[in-house]
Amino acid sequence: MTAPSRNPSLLIGVAIVIALIGTAILGPILFRVDPLAIDLANTLASPSLAHPFGCDALGRDVLARVLWGARLSLSISAAVVALSLIVGSLIGGAAALSGGRIDNLVMRGVDIVLAFPGILLAIALAAILGPGLLDLVIALTAMGWTGYARIVRGEVLTLREREYVLAAEALGARQSRILFRHLLPGIAGPLAVQATFGIGGIIGAEAALSFLGLGAMPPTPSWGNMLDAGRAFLLVAPHLTTAPGIAIGASILGFNLLGDGIAQAVGHRT
Amino acid sequence: MGAVRKPVLVRMMIARMRRCAWLLTLTMIALTSCTGAHRSPDTIQVDIEGSPISTDPRFTTDILSSRINELVFDAMVRIDRNGQFVARLAESYERPTPTELVFHLRHDVHFSDGRPLTARDVKFTFDSILAPETGTPKRAGLSHLKSVSTPDDYTVVMTTDGPYAPALEFAMQTIVPDGTPLPARSSAIGPPGAGPFRMASFVRDESIVLERNPYFPAPANAPSTILFKVVPDPTVRALELTEGVSDFSENNIQPDVLPYLSKQPHLAISKSPGSSYRYLAFNFRDPYLRDVRVRRAIAYSIDRASIINSMMRGAARAATGLLAPENWAYDGNLPIYNYDPAKARQLLDEAGYPAGPDGMRRLRFVYKTTPEQSSLAQALQAMFKRVGITLEIRSNEFATFYSDIQKGNFDLTSLNWVGTNDPNHYYMIFDSKMTPPHGGFNRGYYTNPEMDRLVETGARTLDLSEREQIYAQVQRLAAEDLPYVSLWWDDTVVVMNRELHGFTPYPNGSLISLATLTLQGPGAAEPSE
Amino acid sequence: MIAYVTRRLFALIPVALGVATLTFAIIHLVPGDPVIAMLGETAAPADVEGMRHQLGLDRPVLEQYFSYLGGLAVGDLGESISYRKPVSRIIAERYPATIELAAAGMLVALLIAFPLGIIAGSKPGGTGDIAAMGFAILGISVPHIYLGPLLMILFSLDLRWLPLTGRGGFSHLVLPAITLGTALAAIIARMLRQSLIGVRESDYMRTAISKGLSERAALIRHGLRNALTSVITIIGLQMGSLLSGTLITEMIFSWPGLGRLLISAIGARDYPTVEGCVLAFALTYVVVNMATDLIYALVDPRVRIS
Fold first, then answer.
1. Do C68 and C102 fall into the same domain?
2. Residues from chain A contacting residue B374 (CB–CB below 8 Å)
3. Of B154, B188, B205, B175, which is closest to residue B50 (Cα–Cα)?
4. Do C53 and C105 reside in the same domain of the chain?
5. What is the per-residue pLDDT across B375-390, written as a single tens digit (0 to 9) for each?
6. What mean pLDDT comes out for the span A113-133?
7. Which of B132, B233, B440 lies nearest to residue C251, judging by beta carbons?
8. Number of domains, chain C
9. What end-to-end distance do the CA atoms of chain C give, in Å?
10. What is the DSSP string of C175-198?
11. One domain for residues C57 and C177
């Protein structure tokens, strides 16, 4: 472990992420403007005192929407990353520990999912479950877990060959104990990095799915669907995209720095 | 390979790579400096939002295919911008008996490959559509056409299965040459036609190139080539117009961007009345929506004026019904539901429409995912909230949306009718027998014996003034009973390079007058504002 | 070596089978009907049934599945429902455009990533590092749907350097390739930086420097080769997002590739075309990964092909 003072990435990362989460929680409480209230007299209004970030195509306050969007975008990302991490780690770990045929089978399965265009899955889920947050989370998780599975499997396979693990095994330690005592710390670093990248990736993926009409359902604001809706007005009202754009940038910056910091703290090089 | 030689190789590769990088940069500069060149003066580019589905007019039902096919193929009769039939391939036509239409074809018409167009080609086209094995969606539309016969090379007789008022619309089918194979075995560019252009190339999702049909007279100074480019993104279409890459765009630019485009010195924008009708349809399988008071309440809760003024930037007219004022059968003396949330709430209570624990009624609105539909859905949602209705919105791509509609998995939906001409369309949408899958568009399962009687009589009545009266009653009944809430008629909005002259916008959005467009010349009649 | 490649090629079969099965299942589960999409709602029930029969859609689903697999086994992807042409021919028309775009995106990614990664990795914590990584973060954080129009406005509308859309010469490729490649560039640059930092602290670097090589020269000569392995791995891993990125980029830049074909085929419920497109994407992914594995083995002598 390095002292926090020698790990500026961690410090800045933590600061930005806390600021983001704080904004998501407190923002809508402090700035009490209804993000769904349309005001057709104010469509595409430029930033003003009443509407610091301007208004969108339906005259809704962009600042209020960005603040509420923070809640949605961050919680979707967190949910997807957590689910992907759990599903991927379990599958990857199980494959590596069982080895042989099962490992082979699982890795073929991973290959298939990796090779499969997620967009078809997203469209299918939206059509079957009805578009909404649930199918968004399921679709993004179904596309996202493989990365974690690969990392966990790879790390487990390498670490198992390390002397101390072999020694522990020779001394008769149980497999689950070995996994937790020795493998987990080794895996935490790369997983943390993957997860932080994952958060950025998911915010971006949500924007791409919004572009295809599969993101968070209107009128609920998410950064992705705000960016997509604002894109159409780049020529006449660029301020619609600035705020969600900066929000997306800031969160990716924060989570990446945090990931780097964690990686450094646990002494892992990616 | 020896260990000694490797570094040399690597160094050589690095040196080569460096050279490549320079070359790349230079080419890039060289190439980029020539992209400013304008299009060839003889070609105009028209940006379209999607790819046409079919280049064979026996199959085209989508709007884009029809718009382009109109330029390549010709029909016995056509509709002009005032909704009047004009003779095209036919020099004249008459109705000798209630079930017969006789067309006398012109003798001087040629397909773009030089073959003369005769009655045989006309008969072939119709027979081909009517053959079940052709598998074309157009067959259903000709269900009242009993036969097409050709007493001689330049006479065509159409026989209907009884007096059928809209029969003349059958003759708007564009004609392909006798013997044209089905699309499975024909080339992508489709068969030759007798229209002003011939298709020179068709690359799906990319472009369509039309060149002049050498057998069709072209005006002086007319562009020889029209390049239809498929540009799915609305922002990009606006950018292409701004840069002068594209010269023409109709009804596919967002209203909010029009003020920006109007500031470009080389662009002219025209708005003219259109007949594309946007409506809100109810699902009559829902017991509460079957109550006319609930439907009226919903009509009263929509602030159409603000939607038109703000969201559409005024590029639409509030609609009274399916038929626009330009239609011969239009009757504007109808009840209008102006925004009145208090009245809406009162009607909902009178109807005894129960509210949930949160004091709100819940309705599900399904729509096809487009930015415009999404804005409309959100605006309606906010407006309905004020009268105590929670509008749950469900947006899907077309096939899923459509499957929802077919299964009755909706309360409200919004669509539009483009290019309605004969008022018999009321039969297709409101007759109780015309529910899917029985060949009609009555998706909401609307049932009203009086409506049935009127639209069925209207279809069989040949006398024009009698028909006019029947459809006046239909329009009144539709406005009172509200199977649809009428929203608006979209304007025809054309953005065009100022170098182009002589384009006549059509209320139904037809692009046929691209054929008579000229490049310079006198500032021929600018489209009316 | 040849045995290895053959074995890997055989390993393609289960993946292809899995992808084909998954696609078949998903597209048949999605509501919507290809015949209604084609004939429209006014079609008479008899015509709908006739068309269904003609297309073989009235057979039991399992039978359709096995006849589809049977076709696949002999390389027959079936006939497109909406285009009425063999799917293999339609894909052959569209595939080159997508590969051109993906390859250009990859090239852009590498051209941006290498200088950035080397600048950042050779002096971590320095100004160059901060600037390069700042750019990398920016690159990851701008989604394609936003970057594309921004580049168009900047380079096409304002500067008039590059054309807006469509497929044509080199100049048409630049903006879509940058749109597609930026995010990947950022990821590769970060990866490169990390492995260069790792290499800096390794024993053989110390040896090389002690032998009198300048640090940067030693890093480029020894470190880069080492870092290359991780770059190759990341390229394989990112191939999936690169390919799905082509889909969005094709939509924005009116690029006539496979992605737009897939989207419109899904819309028309054109089952054979959807299945063919997905298979083409999947096989591309798998083959690229195979290739990266091979290159990996060639670059890193420690990895033996077995």
1. no
2. 213, 218, 229
3. B205
4. no
5. 899 999 999 999 999 9
6. 82
7. B233
8. 2
9. 8
10. HHHHHHHHHHHHHHHHHHHHHHHH
11. no
The reply to whether C105 and C225 lie within a common domain is: yes
Are residue C56 and residue C116 in the same domain, yes or no?
no
Residues of B in contact with C253 (CB under 8 A): 236
Closest CA to B68 of B47, B89, B85, B83: B47
Range of the structural domain that residue C202 is part of: 96-299
Residue of C nearest to A129 (CA): C30
Share of chain B above pLDDT 70, in %: 90
Start and end residues for every CATH 3.10.105.10 domain found in chain B: 274-490
| Residue A104: count of CB within 10 angstroms of its CB | 14
Q: Which two tokens stand for residue C185?
A: 């560039």
Structural contact between residues A200 and A251, judged by C-beta atoms closer than 8 angstroms: yes
Average pLDDT over residues B336-365: 92
Token reading at B53: 């589905």
Give CATH for domain B63-172.
Answer: 3.90.76.10
C143 touches A: beta carbon within 8 Å:
yes
Cα dihedral sign, B174-B178-B183-B188: negative
Q: Cβ(C47)–Cβ(C39) under 8 Å?
A: yes
Tell whether the model's pLDDT for residue A165 goes beyond 70: no
Residue type, A190: P
| Minimum-distance CB partner of B439 among C42, C152, C267 | C42
Residues contacting residue A64 through CB under 8 Å, at least 6 positions apart: A28, A31, A33, A34, A35
Q: Assess if CATH 3.90.380.10 describes domain B274-490.
A: no
Length of chain B: 529
| B110 DSSP 8-state letter | B
Same domain flag for C166 and C227: yes
Residues sharing a CB contact under 8 Å with residue A101, sequence separation 6 or more, in sequence order: none
Quote ipTM for the complex: 0.82
Pick from C164, C267, C268: CB nearest B243: C164
**To probe the interface with A, which of C8, C141, C147 has the most A CB atoms within 10 Å?**
C141
According to DSSP, residue B115 is labeled P
Q: How many domains are contained in chain A?
A: 1
**pLDDT band at residue B11, thresholds of 50, 70 and 90?**
very low
Within-domain flag for C236: yes
**Residue range(s) in chain B whose domain bears CATH number 3.90.76.10:** 63-172
Closest CA to C275 of C50, C54, C64: C64
Whether residue C88 is contained in a domain is answered as no
Under the banding of pLDDT at 50, 70 and 90, the label for residue B249 is very high
Domain assignment present for residue C149? The answer is yes
Among C157, C253, C266, whose Cβ lies nearest the Cβ of B243? C157
What's the residue count for chain C? Answer: 306
Supply the pLDDT for residue C305.
52
Residue of C nearest to A270 (CA): C194
Unique residue bearing structure tokens 């009607």: B347
Under 8 Å between Cβ of B300 and B351: no
pLDDT value of position B460: 93
What is the distance between the alpha carbons of residues C233 and C235, in angstroms, rounded to a whole number? 5
Q: Give pTM, 2 decimals.
A: 0.85
Same domain, C67 and C135: no
pLDDT at B108: 93
- What percentage of chain A's residues is helix, strand, coil (to nearest 5)? 75, 0, 25
Judged against a pLDDT cut of 90, whether residue A83 lies above it is answered with yes
> Which residues constitute the domain of residue A135?
4-27+60-266
Residue B514's pLDDT is 94
What is the CATH number for A171?
Answer: 1.10.3720.10
All residues of chain C having their beta carbon less than 8 Å from the beta carbon of residue A246 are none
Q: Please report whether residue C37 resides in a domain.
A: yes
Are C18 and A109 a contacting pair, CB within 8 Å? yes
Contacts of C251 in chain A (CB under 8 A): 211
At B6, which amino acid appears?
K
Cβ–Cβ below 8 Å for A219 and B400: no
C69 and C101, same domain (yes or no): no
